[in-house]
Structure formats: structure tokens, C-alpha cells
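Hello Y.,

Per our agreement to keep a running log of every chain we model this quarter, I'm adding this entry. I've kept the format consistent with earlier entries: sequence first, then predicted structure.
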Amino acid sequence: MNARTEQLSMSNEIYALRNVCRGFGKGSDERQVLSDVDLTLHEGEIVGLLGRSGSGKSTLLRIIAGLIPPSSGEVDYKGQPLNGAAEGVAMVFQTFALFPWLTVLQNVEAGLQAQQVEPGEARQRALAAIDLIGLDGFENAYPRELSGGMRQRVGFARALVVNPTLLLMDEPFSALDVLTAETLRTDLLDLWSQAQLPIKSILIVTHNIEEAVFMCDRILVLSSNPGRVVAEIKVPYAHPRNRLDPDFRKMVDDIYALMTDRRSANASEARTGLQLGSQLPNVSTNLMAGLIEALAGEPYNGQADMPDVAGRLRLEIDELFPVAEALEYLGFAEVKGGDITLTEAGRLFADYGTQMRKTQFAEQLLRYVPLAARIRQVLQERSGHRAPRVRFEQELADSLSDDYVQEVLDSVISWGRYAEIFSYNDHTETFSLDDVEGHS
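Predicted structure for the entry above:
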């Protein structure tokens, strides 16, 4: 990089995060959400944050907005250290966050009133933003009168009316139906490409890999627990982008492969299997059975490309990945290179009836999930075949935070009940072998 190029890059830099960490809780109960995150944002680009739950995407967004400080690291905004809320940063949320008692116009004006903009100017700017975002004619409507897509357009207008330098978007399309989300993405990109938006950069948090490739110039992939940047991907395609283009599809496939590569996440479990204190995905047995059935049938016949599965079943990564991971942990499937393949156990499960499925699930659960086997063993060894939940909470406390202890136990309880390897009374928080056949 020559001096002129470096100077131009530096002058166009809006945000810089260096070695940012963030934890919640204190002492041994602290949960590290972000670890050593480096991130830069420049003028004229849309950047995507892509990752699963637990990767700290929303936490990172709030640090950038100045709503919460990092535990450590540096945050610079426009070349200066950020202290407190960042002026010139607006946010669009997944849940619209509109005031139901205000009209569309009043909702859009609300941000300007907070900035003490003169009423006449606020009205003029709000009307212009409403017109820009395609809601002209609905100024006096209330949120209850609008569709989900129209409510989100109000959210965009409210963010744009303050003329922000940076627009942060926290899964802004995930609460919308497929067609509405596609229309809103396309309209937003058209306005951006035509330089009609009063913003210099966009940062979008998403669970949708295809959405990230469709919208973004750069994509940052975050690992989970704690979140850290494991890959930065430049998207070289001009807008508008063709989702059916082979290069576009290949990039989507490559990112799926990256994010399902067990060597970059849960590496120890991939090599040696689950441990007693391993984290487990909180996935219902109904979802596992449903994915097995989908994979076993046409057109997959036991092996599928995960982007294709996600598209056909309309699942985002935070919905598909945990189910696939649970099937892999339990020995029903293998996930590699963005593909998911049923094992022999998975194929048998798909063919079995209800009771045989339960029997096989019990065998897989006791074989591959040490915590399930441990609970069963303790119950069998005790004379009354009972044990309190707290007994296993204490055993897990050395390797997991309090939050994860509860999540892991809840997952195993759900799976164990389905498999009928033990009973659990939620009122007394007690495990037992009551009504479980063959425990003596």
C-alpha cells in the first residue's frame, strides 16, 4: 500500500475497534461474549456481521453504538476514542420498536424531537424521509394499521431522518415474510446504490448467509462462545446481484462450509466427542426428527447441500445449524464442507416407527452424551432411584457458567424424557426412574 492509498483509507475510516472484549457477570460466573475483536468500517460500504447465537453480534452492535462499553480494547469513532453514545449513529431493530400511540409521521419525528430540531424543520425532514422510504400517503396511519413490511419502513425512515453517518441494522428483515423482506432489501439497496441515503456506511447483523452475500461488500464471520472474527470475506460483485449466478451460489456454499467446519468451532468435540461439561444445542427432538425425515426423503436420499436445505425449508443458520449439530453429536448425521449426510443410525431412525425411534434415540443418547449417561447411572445406583437437579448443577459448575449449566441440563432433560431413560419433575426439580421401563 503506497502512502496516498494509505492516507485515503485512513481518511475514509469511520469506525475502528481493536482487541475489543466484553463479558457479563462477575468472577467465576463471568460469561465472555466477545474476545479480541478487530473491526473497521469505511465510507461507502455495507458490512455484514454473520454468526450464530452466542457469537455476540448484537453485543458488538451496541458497543459500536456506544450504548455499552467494552470490558477492554479500543473503540474509535471518526478518529477519536468513543465515550458514551455515538453521535451520528442510528439503529434499525428486528422488532420495529415503534410507538403504537403515535402516527407514522409522529414516529419518524420522534428522533428529531429528541435532538431538539425546530418543529417546522422536523416536519419537513420527516415527510421527506417517509416519501424516500416509500410510505407517502400513510403519514397519519397508526402502526396497527400497517403490515410488518410497512412498519419496518417506518423504522428505516425514523433512522434515516436524523441524517446518520452510520446505520446499524440488527436483523432488520428476520421478522418479515420472505417476499416482503426481499422487496425491502432490494428497495434499500436501490436507494444506497443511487446515493439517495444520507448515510456513509451500513453495518448489518444477520443470520442469513444469502442475505449477507446479496447485500454486503464485506462479511465478517464470528465464532461463538466467545465471539471473535474468524474470517473476513470480500464480496466482489456489483449491485444488483443475481442470486442464481454460479459465482454467487459458490460464495454462499463456501460460507456455509466455513461456518459448519467443526475444526473452527467445537474442535475438541469433533475429535474426541462430547465431555460431561460440553455445551449442547437447545434443540427439540421434533426438529431433529423433522430434519432426518427431510434428508432421508426426495430429493436428498440421505445427503444434502446445507444451503439447499436452508432454502427449501426456509431456515436461517441459527435455526438449521443447531439441529444439524445436535444430529451430529448424537451420531445421526455428519456435517462436513457445507454438506450434511445421514449416518446408518440416521437412515434407520427415518424408517422406524414411533417406539423404535425412541429406543434408538435412547441408545444414541446414552452412547454419545456423557451427561445423559451420568444422570442415568446415578439414578440406577441410588436405592430410591431419585436425584435432585442441584446435584448435577454442582457437577457441571466447574466447567460451565451458571447460564450454560441450566441450558445444558434443560436440553438433556428434554432429550431424556423423549428417550424415556429417566423422568423429571419440574415442580420438585427431581430426576427419577419412575415410570421408566427396564431400570432395575
